[in-house]
Structures are given as C-alpha cells and as structure tokens.
Write a structure and sequence with these properties.
Helix content is about 30%, strand content about 30%. The chain has about 190 residues and is of the alpha+beta class. It has a single domain, classed as Glutaredoxin. The protein has a seven-stranded mixed beta sheet. It is globular. The protein starts with a strand and ends with a helix. The N terminus is likely disordered. One of its GO terms (molecular function) is thioredoxin peroxidase activity. Belongs to the peroxiredoxin family. Prx5 subfamily. It catalyses: [glutaredoxin]-dithiol + a hydroperoxide = [glutaredoxin]-disulfide + an alcohol + H2O. It holds the Pfam family Redoxin.
Length: about 190
C-alpha cells in the first residue's frame, strides 16, 4: 500500500491506497466559531417543523458561546458504525456528560435536518443528544473535517471525530484515522479526557 503526504493550503493531505484524507486545521485552542465564520447548522426536525420555522438555521455562535459542548461528527445517518456504536456511546453516557457540566451533546453530519430527525428518532436518542444537519457541508469543510467517500457512494462526508468545546474554544479534539474506525471519537474516550 502506497502512502504519500502533500501540502494543500494549510491542511496536510495524506493519500493511502488511493483514498485522500485531510487532517483537521481545527486544533486544540482554536475558536470553532471563528474557524467557520457565518456558518449555521440545521437542527433536526420534521418537514412541518421546518416549514413553520421558515427553515431557520442555528448560527454556530448560538451553539457554542458561553456553553460547554461536546460535539461529534460522523459520516452519515443510518450508516453502520454511526448507528451501532458512535451515537450509542454518547446516548449511554449522557448523565456522565451532564455531571461534568456539559450543556449540550451534539451530533453533526452532512445530511439534511429531516434525515437527521428520522434517524435520531429511530435511535431513540433525540431526548439526550441534539442532532444537526450540515446539509451542504459548509461547517465541516470550514474546519477541514471532511473525507471523500465516493467509493462507498456517499460523496463528501464528515470524518469521524469528537471535540469538547468551552465558550467556542476547542479544549479536546479527536479525529479518527479512517471513517470506519471507532477508536478515539467515542463517548467513553472523550469523557476520560475531560
């Protein structure tokens, strides 16, 4: 298997076996709101809720400023590791996060908010975790946490990652080496780092 690293803007790109992987420009100490200026996410909701809210979005500053937030990103709703391991690792630890003073545990993926809503309901996790869609990938692209999964017919998706953020400042950041891995981005792992 051939591995090659190259520099593209400020992001280190690695090509392993034909798959290009970006390592996040977001880092511990970064301001996540400044890293993605003027970006908003779409809170999971039904179509009717979307219509009644006039398709409102949530600016990042409203999600992070003055709050302690654990956010995790994953390749997509209804996918294997995401459904079987990643979301449950946060859902099953929600009381431990709250005991540490965390205001919100948030899941984000490049999906629309309606798919995220249906998935959250299917996982029975909507009461514990806030789900947000990044429908066009603008947030995840801004923080360089995307991966091309066209070979799996998914296109551009979030890599698998987790972060602990206080008042917009990243305190802990974990990025998996491959989207199929689940070693450093789970709920138990980040709990131990807080």
């Amino acid at each position: 298997m051939m591995t090659m690293a190259m520099k593209r803007s400020s992001v280190l790109q690695t090509v392993v076996g034909g798959i290009q992987r970006a390592y996040a420009s977001l880092a511990v100490g970064s301001d996540i709101v400044s890293a993605a200026p003027n970006v908003s996410l779409q809170k999971a909701r039904s179509w009717d809720e979307g219509v009644s809210s006039k398709f409102a979005t949530t600016p990042l500053r409203d999600i992070f400023k003055g709050k302690k937030v654990v956010m995790f990103g994953l390749p997509g709703a209804y996918t294997g590791v995401c459904s079987a391991q990643h979301v449950p690792s946060y859902k099953n630890n929600i009381d431990k996060f709250k005991a540490k003073g965390v205001d919100s545990v948030i899941c984000v993926a490049i999906n629309d908010p309606y798919v995220m809503n249906g998935w959250a309901e299917k996982l029975e996790a909507k009461h514990a975790i806030e789900f947000y869609g990044d429908f066009d990938g603008s947030f995840l692209k801004s923080v360089d946490l995307t991966v091309d999964l066209s070979s799996a017919l998914l296109g551009t998706r979030s890599t698998r990652w987790s972060a602990y953020v206080e008042d917009g400042t990243v305190k802990v950041l974990n990025v998996e080496k491959a989207p199929s891995e689940f070693k450093v981005s789970g709920g138990d792992h980040i709990l131990a780092q807080m």
